[in-house]
């Protein structure tokens, strides 16, 4: 969704942007080519940072500044590796989730289509637990929680017991072994757990709120329903369309006609826990009015929404790139109000 991102980011000469998920560098190159500006390129994957450094050594020079690290630590990374101090950025773009390059590299273990080591870490050079560590080390109850929370699987307990039984005979160390037991969605569940992707997204959004100048643009592209809900909930709370504190209900989920039991199993440990975390982080800030059309009062909403509805890829792009079909884009503009979430 490069065109849609650039339309909302609006790069201008002299401004400073952050590509919070550099990956292959598509957004970064487009921003730098569109204006005489500077881009801070973040990524937790060492391979992506090497690509950014190669670009910086070429024609972009000092306008491209690669920074290795998680976007959940964006504020501290920016303030440590540059002379900038919050609020200092004119735009931030997130492209959340695993990249095509990571999926297509069998040695990373992200894809169920290729046999490779069961790793799934976005920073494979780190010392964090791998998917193999989780699959072979967690009990069935813990595995079921992961599959239910991040995969929405109502038969999670049965699947977890199958994994537990299979590893008794032989450790599950490769993606093909896991694929013989579980489905594609369950691979995704493990990846989200291994990389703490929802936690990182939450921390990254809070950091973006602190780092953006008044008038700065935030653009987030997500591919998983839980990521999309996290971005939507954050922006709705920060724009006054939902109260900063208190639980909310997703009408779209109610319309899907799931039984109460199914919805509780799929959402209780994901959405409610995520919203409770937002509440814990924001409890010392005053609540905003939940009236959708209310004007942002002084000291109130920290963002205004660019559009109320999520933006989806065009049919042309979806036909050209099948992986873009699930993409959801949301954008917002930073106001002069102080951040609603605490400094991280």
TrEMBL record:
Gene3D superfamilies: Putative methyltransferase TM0872, insert domain, Vaccinia Virus protein VP39
Keywords: Methyltransferase, S-adenosyl-L-methionine, Transferase
GO biological process: rRNA base methylation
InterPro entries, per database record: RsmH, SAM-dep_MeTrfase_MraW_recog, SAM-dependent_MTases_sf
Record field: transmembrane: none
Keyword NAD: no
Alphabetical list of Pfam families matching this protein: Methyltransf_5 (PF01795)
Coiled-coil positions: none
Region (Disordered), start-end ranges: 242-265, 282-344
Any one GO molecular-function label of the UniProt entry: rRNA (cytosine-N4-)-methyltransferase activity
Highest taxon listed in the record's lineage: Eukaryota
Alphabetized NCBIfam families for the sequence: 16S rRNA (cytosine(1402)-N(4))-methyltransferase RsmH
Similarity field: Belongs to the methyltransferase superfamily. RsmH family.
HAMAP family: 16SrRNA_methyltr_H
PANTHER family listed in its UniProt record: 12S RRNA N4-METHYLCYTIDINE METHYLTRANSFERASE, S-ADENOSYL-METHYLTRANSFERASE MRAW
Protein name in UniProt: MraW methylase family-domain-containing protein
Organism in which the protein naturally occurs: Thamnocephalis sphaerospora
Biological classification of the source: Eukaryota, Fungi, Fungi incertae sedis, Zoopagomycota, Zoopagomycotina
């Amino acid at each position: 969704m490069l065109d849609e991102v650039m339309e909302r980011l609006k790069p201008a000469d002299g401004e400073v942007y952050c590509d919070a998920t550099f990956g292959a560098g598509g957004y970064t190159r487009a921003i730098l080519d569109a204006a005489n500006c500077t881009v801070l390129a973040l990524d937790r994957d060492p391979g992506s940072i090497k690509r950014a450094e190669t670009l910086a050594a070429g024609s972009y020079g000092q306008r491209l500044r690669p920074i290795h690290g998680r976007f959940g630590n964006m504020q501290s990374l920016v303030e440590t590796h540059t002379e900038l101090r919050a609020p200092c950025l004119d735009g931030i773009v997130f492209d959340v989730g695993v990249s095509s390059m990571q999926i297509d590299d069998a040695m990373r273990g992200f894809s169920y289509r290729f046999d490779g080591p069961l790793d799934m870490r976005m920073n494979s050079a780190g010392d964090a637990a791998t998917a193999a560590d989780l699959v072979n080390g967690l009990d069935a109850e813990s595995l079921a929680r992961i599959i239910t929370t991040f995969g929405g699987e109502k038969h999670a307990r049965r699947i977890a017991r199958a994994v537990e039984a299979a590893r008794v005979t032989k450790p599950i160390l490769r993606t093909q072994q896991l694929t013989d037991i579980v489905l594609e969605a369950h691979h995704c569940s493990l990846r989200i757990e291994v990389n703490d992707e929802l936690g990182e997204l939450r921390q990254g959004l809070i950091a973006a709120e602190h780092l953006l100048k008044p008038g700065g643009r935030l653009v987030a592209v997500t591919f998983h329903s839980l990521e999309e809900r996290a971005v939507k909930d954050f922006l709705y709370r920060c724009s006054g369309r939902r109260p900063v504190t208190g639980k909310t209900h997703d009408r779209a989920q109610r319309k899907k006609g799931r039984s109460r039991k199914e919805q509780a199993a799929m959402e209780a440990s994901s959405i409610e826990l995520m919203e409770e975390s937002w509440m814990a982080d924001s409890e010392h800030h005053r609540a905003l009015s939940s009236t959708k059309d209310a004007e942002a009062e002084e000291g109130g909403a920290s963002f205004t929404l660019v559009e109320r509805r999520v933006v989806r890829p065009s049919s042309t792009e979806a036909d050209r790139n099948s992986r873009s079909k699930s993409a959801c884009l949301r954008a917002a503009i930073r106001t002069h109000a102080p951040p609603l979430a605490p400094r991280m």
